[in-house]
Input
Amino acid sequence: MRLTHTLLCVLTAFSFELGAATPTPFHGHSFAPSPSSDMQGKCTQKLQRRAWQNLSRAEKKAYLDAELCLMSLPTKTGLPAAVTRFDDLIKAHQMQAYWVHGDGWFLPFHRLLMSAHELLLRQECGYAGAQPYWEETVTVGKVSTCELLDPVYGFGGGGTGPGGCISDGPFKDYVLHTGPGEENTVQCIHRNVSDTNSWGSSQANVTECLQKPSFATAWPCLEKRPHWAGHNAIGGEVANPISSPGDPLFYLHHTWLDKLWWNWQALDLPARLEDIAGHTSSVKNPALPADYSFVNATLDDVLDMYGVVANATVRDVMDIRGERLCFEYVEYQPPAEENPKKTWWPWG
Ligand SMILES: [Cu+2]
Output
């Protein structure tokens, strides 16, 4: 059973008040295997997810063009207010925001959503690359001038138009029919860039989260600091916890967060490929029995994609080298001038 949340307050970021439901188990859509999996579904050739800052101009252009393509294709889900294929992904996030944030499903669901976005770019828009990530540790304190906001080889600037609308870049004319929050209104993609808000993505904060001993402690650390920082450094629509996928930068940010989760998992794979904790909802739904609102998340829980792509279980997305997901993260490489060759002087 699905509950609608049309009357919920949307302006208090991450302070959810209502609503939780067990996701519907299956939408009836057949799963199209990743192009990089073989006929048996084994992960044979992993997509290489690289930092946006390490992509060539041609690679950046190819990604931006594919996103524009997704924005030009019509919706296939017919979800309320969805007009384009890009909107379909927003809806899958917006319609269940109350049970995929602040709980055990947060990291698994967003991993699946990043993969869905990557799959649509590749299968429906001819994109040959992988989903890139925004290496945020190196843009701390200087997001407003970073190359992600480049008007030609980036996502446009920080909302200098009326109402904070982005006024340059490839996405300046995109008309959202979703947001803010649970509303579905016609609006521009708007931003409110803050260098100050990016501090939660510092290497020190990341390192602290990676040192946590369990999913139960690592996930809240990642969600509260680096996750919050990226959303609020860009600001505007992407800072809205419910309708945030309305800004294409959402995918660069959450892919970086997913990389951090994988970096943490990779420190002890035998244990951490099965380590899940937290509830299935961050809110209490008064219409349901109390024990139904706050059940523990398990590996068998079904993550609902609302028909955008096939559903997956939490277990399906725990390993990025499995049958459902098939990619790897390439670590960020600093430019040569930021990483000068050390000269070894014999006198020290
Ligand atoms: Cu989210």
